[in-house]
Amino acid sequence: MEISSVLQGGYNHPLSREWQSRRRLDKSMFMYPIFITDDPKAHVEIPSLPGQARWGVDRLEEFIGPLVKKGLRSIILFGVPLNCAKDDRGTPADDPEGPVILAIKKLRALYPALYIATDVCLCEYTDHGHCGLLNADG
Fold first, then answer.
1. CA 28 to CA 47: how far, in whole Å?
2. Which range of residues forms the domain containing residue 37?
3. Which of 38, 50, 95, 130 lies 20 to 30 Å from 122, alpha-carbon distance?
4. Is residue 133 part of a domain?
């Protein structure tokens, strides 16, 4: 089998193939950041990011629906839980009932063609606040 016949991981979605097929930069190549919190009804403005808010899962459709109708094709989700039991391993990050995972499920059901990425930083989920896992020597 020739290596050119293998579909690489970055090409598994039509949108990522389009992004990587040309050398240009336009609005279709940007991901809209969405901050998800664990209060399902939340809509809290973020003072340090004008025009941005923390959204609860139950409010996502009202926010994202109009944007998808206007042509939004990709988003990146950032988890901002306020009430999770943080630990040194960042365990809440992959909780099936956590805000990011619930948001992915809801958005995938509502907008199957929407390209969804997630932030994998653990700082919001660890008790030490670092982005990754620490071992005995740091």
1. 27
2. 30-118
3. 50
4. no
71 closest CA partner among 119, 22, 20, 29: 29
Domain for residue 68, yes or no? yes
User: What is the per-residue pLDDT for 1?
Assistant: 47
Separation of alpha carbons 54 and 37, rounded Å? 6
Intervals of the chain under pLDDT 50: 1
Q: Please give the full DSSP string across the chain, using - where no structure is assigned.
A: --GGGS--GGGSSHHHHHHHHSS---GGGPPEEEEE-S-TT-EEE-TTSTT-EEE-GGGHHHHHHHHHHTT--EEEEEE--SS---BTT-GGGG-TTSHHHHHHHHHHHH-TT-EEEE----TTTBSS--SS---TT-
Nearest to 38 by CA among 91, 80, 86, 77: 80
pLDDT for 6 = 55
Q: Is residue 53 part of a domain?
A: yes
Partners of 54 in the β-ladder: 35, 44
How many domains is the chain partitioned into structurally? 1
